[in-house]
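Example complex used in Figure S2.
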Amino acid sequence: MKTLKIPEATVMRLSVYSRFLEQAEHHGIVTVSSGDIAEGVGVSPAQVRKDLAYFGEFGTRGVGYNVSDLYQQIRRILGLNREWPVVLVGAGKLGSALARYQGFLGRGFRIIGVFDNDPGQFGRKLNGSEVLPISQLEEVVQKNGVEIGIITVPAAAAQEVADRLVNAGIKAILNFSPRVLNVPGQVVIRNVDFSVNLEVLTFNLGLTNKHF
Amino acid sequence: MKTLKIPEATVMRLSVYSRFLEQAEHHGIVTVSSGDIAEGVGVSPAQVRKDLAYFGEFGTRGVGYNVSDLYQQIRRILGLNREWPVVLVGAGKLGSALARYQGFLGRGFRIIGVFDNDPGQFGRKLNGSEVLPISQLEEVVQKNGVEIGIITVPAAAAQEVADRLVNAGIKAILNFSPRVLNVPGQVVIRNVDFSVNLEVLTFNLGLTNKHF
DNA sequence: GACTGTGAAGCCATTCACAGCT
DNA sequence: AGCTGTGAATGGCTTCACAGTC
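Predicted assembly (424 residues):
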């Protein structure tokens, strides 16, 4: 089993390519070149080809790529050729918005449980499932073989929730709280930090005046 | 004006360091070493020192960094030593959640206008401001000198909204829609794409079985 | 003794440029 | 002729290792 390391940037771009291809297929386009994809998503054609080359040869020289073939291949590479059950902890504003977000479903993610520690939230309906007490987290995770958890609790509670998710058997966490979380090495974690993103913007806005 | 290029990863880490320092200050800690910061945010001590070195010498050899000094320095570097008015377009679930998110205020961002094209939304109160028709976007942006816009509309409407923001004079956009946006080169753009983040997780979960 | 600041080395990702196929 | 696949070159970020300072 040769484990060639794939750059994370490549994985993120594959996800974007797959959405581009989904659109292209929807528009009835049969074949695209690396240049078409590149233009559509804002990268270089060489980058597109290199990214794909990590995983095999999907195109035809002189022609390009078959849209639906490549789309399916990338979905398979990303692990999207199945449905992924997801639990979400934190039924506040952001958690509720995510639980109702339709974009996840179309890509194979199904939020099967929303948890909170505020009894006032229990039973609230969110897109099919209802808000459950956090005490039921372990049971739901284990009964459904859930591997992915989303954290949308305030910063102060985030580490405790992460520990609990890991203990319940979760293998990957998407963290929306503005906190650096400690998890065991085998657990995959990604942070989506709104303030960091805004601050990259303000830094760049400031560059015009400053001199570093 | 020497314009040394700063890696974007460095800017993102600075934002994380600043939050770590905010916490440290709050706990009454006076001095920290690069190793302390590194441990707190999960990077190497050398990385912390290199990141800071792009901007000057903020520490004392043999001692470390003064917490509140360094905190203020980083805030200045990121452009956070002022308040930034922000407009948000798209008063759906996610937009409403963001408009109410308290974390922004503490870091100097104030959402002064929320816009939508659905008359059913007009007038709804969101944390002080109310939802306005998109036709008033230009006026609010210009009257308040707004430079930052947040897009939380569905994918199909995102490019049109981006064009409109740029036309109104917006200089930086935080895009939450799952779409690659075309904007003029001088406009800074950052994408926060929930699906891409989840798909990086599923890719990594799949790595255990697959062999690339 | 402890810790910063930094050139040099090492590593990783992107771009180039062209051979190879249709 | 057109476009992919890929080794080689480039560029950029991170780590190393140590001189400099307190």
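Residues 162 and 181 of chain A are 7 Å apart (CA to CA). Chain A has nine helices and nine strands.
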